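User: Show me a protein chain along with its predicted structure.
Assistant: Here is one chain, sequence first, then structure tokens.
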Amino acid sequence: MTERLTCSLVINQFAGPIALNNIGYKYIYIFVGWDCVEALLWYLFCVESQGRTIEQLEWVYNQPNPVKASLKVDKVVVEQDGRVVEKVDA
């Protein structure tokens, strides 16, 4: 993981100015286009973890298809002290 991160940082640090020098302002189209590709890949292949507990995330990552499992939302009734009383079928 760290090798890939290091490579991407080096490319961003040193290739950007070279590309900007060679193709000028059109470099921004390549940069934004690549950002759009990355955003699409994150949307399609990454797990939604916002608002979940560690236990819920453990369950999500143990499923055969974690991305699909992360989209499943269970509604529950929670007491004032934080205990889950019942699961509501939606």
